[in-house]
Structure formats: C-alpha cells, structure tokens
Amino acid sequence: MSSELSYVHPTANSPWGTYLSQVDRVMPYLGPLARWSETLKRPKRALIVDVPIEMDNGTIAHFEGFRVQHNMSRGPGKGGVRFHPDVTLEEVMALSAWMTVKCAAVNLPYGGAKGGIRVDPKKLTLTELEKITRRYTSEIGVIIGPQQDIPAPDVNTNAQIMAWMMDTYSMNTGTTATGVVTGKPIHLGGSLGRVKATGRGVFVTGREAAHRLGLELEGARVAVQGFGNVGAIAAELFAEAGAKVVAVQDFSGTVYSDRGLDVAQLVAHAKGAGVAGFAGGERIADEDFWGIEVDILIPAALEGQITAERAHRITARLVLEGANGPTVSQADDILAERGILVVPDVICNAGGVTVSYFEWVQDFSSFFWTEDEINQRLDRIMVGALEHIWDTADRHKITLRTATFAVACERILTARQERGLYP
Ligand SMILES: NC(=O)C1=CN([C@@H]2O[C@H](COP(=O)(O)OP(=O)(O)OC[C@H]3O[C@@H](n4cnc5c(N)ncnc54)[C@H](OP(=O)(O)O)[C@@H]3O)[C@@H](O)[C@H]2O)C=CC1
Ligand SMILES: O=C(O)CCC(=O)C(=O)O
What we know:
The chain is an alpha/beta fold. The chain contains 13 helices and twelve strands. It has a seven-stranded mixed β-sheet with strand order 9-8-7-6-10-11-12, sandwiched between helices. Strands 1-2-4-3-5 form a five-stranded mixed β-sheet. The protein binds NADPH dihydro-nicotinamide-adenine-dinucleotide phosphate (NDP) and 2-oxoglutaric acid.
C-alpha cells in the first residue's frame, strides 16, 4: 500500500520528506525484510494535544503540543521534547523516526519517539515555562511511562524541564516515577555524564572518522553551527583535543577567528546573549559560515541547514551531524560526490540517547555508576557501532548514512517480523 499519509504533506527537503528518501535508499539492502518496510514510513501513534495556560498577565494562551511514537517494535518509545516556534507534527514525526533508527543503530532496546510544543520559550517567564511543561506532560501522560515511552531533553529543554515532567507524571500516577524521563537533575535520578553525552558522542565518532581519514585532530580547523547543549560541548571537546574552533554560529550570529576561538570564554559569553558580540572573534555574515576553510564541520542546530547550494561551498573533509536531519538528501549526494565524508545524525549524535539508556537502567536498579564508567561505556558503544556501520558501508559501497539505516532497519524489521502482526 502507498506510504502517502493524508495528515502530512512533506516536500523533498522537509524533515519527513528527507526521512522518507533516506528510507527509500536503504530498500535494496533489506532483502526479504523489505516486505515490512512500510512500517518505517508511518508512525505507530501520533498524539496532538492542546496546551492551555494562564499567562502572567492574566490572559489564556493555547499552544500546540505533540508526541509521536514512530516505532516500538524493539522496546518502549524514546526521544526528546523540543520547545520551538517552528515545531510541527511533520517535524516531530521525522524526529521520532530518526530516533527509531538511531536507537537500533547503537542497539539500545528502544523504539523511537519525539515530542514538542510549538512555542518560543524565550518569550515565556519561568512560571509560564513550568506551567506549559506540566500541562503538556499531563496531556501526553496517557501514552508516556517508564515502560511505554520515555521523553528526554532536545532543543530548548533541559534538566529542570525534565524534573517538572517527572514530578507531574509522578503526581498524576501516585508514584515517584524516576524512569519516566531521562536527562533529569542528578538529585532526581539523573545520570552523571548525560549533559555532555551528545556532544561527547559527536566527538568520539568524529575522532574515529578523522583517524580513518588520516586527519589529525591537533590543529584541525573546526566550524560549529548551534552552540547549545550539543554544539558547545562538541566544540569544547575538539578544542581540548588540540583542534582550532575557527567559527561558531548560533541564532544571534556568526563569530570567526583564524587563530581559533577561545571556546571556554565563548561559552561564558554566549550564556543568555548568544555568540554575537564576542570580543575574541570577528562577526561575519551568517551565510559566509558555510564557505569557511575548515577540516571539520559540525551542524548542531536544526534540520535542513545543509542545502544543495551550501553543500557546493562546504570545504570540510568531514561533516559531523550533531543536529538531527541537518542535511537534505540532494545535499547529501553533492557531499558524497565531492568526497566529503558525512557521519550521519543517526549514529553521530547517538551519545545522548545512549547515556539516557544508562540513566534509565540506573533508575530501575537504583544503583548509580561513576562518570568514568559512563564515559567508558559510551565510548565502547559508539566506537563499536561506528565500526560495524563502516564495515557495512565498505561492503556495499554505500554512504555511512545508508549503511546506518541498513544496520538499524534490519534490526527493526527483524523485530517487527518476529513479533508478527496482531491480531
Ligand atoms: N540535547 C540532546 O541530547 C540532543 C540533541 N540533538 C539535536 O542537536 C541539535 C541541537 O540540540 P541542543 O543542542 O540540545 O539544543 P539547544 O537548545 O541546547 O541549542 C540549540 C542551538 O542551536 C542554535 N540555533 C537555533 N536556530 C538556529 C539557526 N537558525 N541558525 C543557527 N543556530 C541556531 C541555538 O541558538 P540560540 O541559543 O541563539 O537560540 C542554540 O545555540 C538539535 O537538532 C537536536 O535535535 C540530537 C541528539 C541529542
Ligand atoms: O536522550 C534521549 O532519550 C533522546 C535524545 C534525542 O532526542 C535525540 O537523540 O535526538
């Protein structure tokens, strides 16, 4: 049957359109499992909720909230919650599907899910932010749970928001459900290492890929788009390894220094105000970011940033996708033709969900690991997964993205087949 869904209208470069074309590319490598492939092209469950709150000025405001469970063949749904003015059902669907692929790529016992609220959190007071979080959690409470679907932080959400989500769910169910969300504060069953885990995973996969390319990290020139949880931590780790972070872009603008930016100082400066106005670098036009001479480019902001036009201008040898869905499919082809290696989101940024898995396991066993143990396990999982994907790419002569999809979709569809259809 056709995979066209009546409730979304993806275009070639929209997130769901990009995801669908990535699925199409993996079909030739699925063998008899391709029979089940339609399951990848439609979410299992999509919930749209109204989130009304009383604003500080006494008015009542309504926001659109979503939670999409793309696939749960391999385990409970897993994936972050995004607060952003551009959130749509279609975007959340794509993000949930990439979670399914990502969790399977690193072999975590999870399916994929994602949530979001269409809101600009920068325009909310702290009280309003807490209200919107709690009401959203109550509304999606019918489908989330420690064994059902476990949210976590994504763009514009953090440990405090996870604490409110955990408390709201717990109050509604008469429990102390630490396992209902991950990325929580340490005192509420959070895991050491989770805050830095996604950026660390980007660094680990980047280190391994650079090694295979014969690219030295010492002195390598790095550009980072997005200077939040993922981009700033990845920048810090590359700088610690001796790389020069020459350009950083966030929503406020782009800063550049040929000698390398002082990442620690930039992090301190960017808190609240963004990177623009940083005295340790010069301000350049945002569009110039894509043509800067670099060895490594790290998109760590939003989807659809590497367009076909920008792909022609990128000078990097290595692109590390910290963000989800930063590269549209046409750009992917251009980068491949130009010999630029892309470590795709579905493995590159899997460090976050991997440590979320550790957090969930620790919550259930009520026994907590040291940060060193967590980082070592994370390193082992990421390196092992990338090695398997790399071998698959070499064997079939395909990109790392299609290879990651091949490894992951085989696991997902085998689980689907073994479970069978009910009834
Ligand atoms: N947090 C996590 O554990 C994981 C996150 N990801 C993905 O990583 C990406 C970033 O997430 P995360 O770091 O958590 O989010 P944050 O909210 O912490 O940071 C997002 C960053 O992107 C910047 N940004 C937003 N819009 C633009 C734009 N149009 N141009 C340039 N920069 C922009 C923001 O700038 P400003 O601050 O000025 O608004 C901010 O620096 C997302 O794609 C997310 O899905 C993937 C795996 C896990
Ligand atoms: O930590 C998690 O569970 C999910 C993180 C996430 O949203 C992502 O990997 O995109």
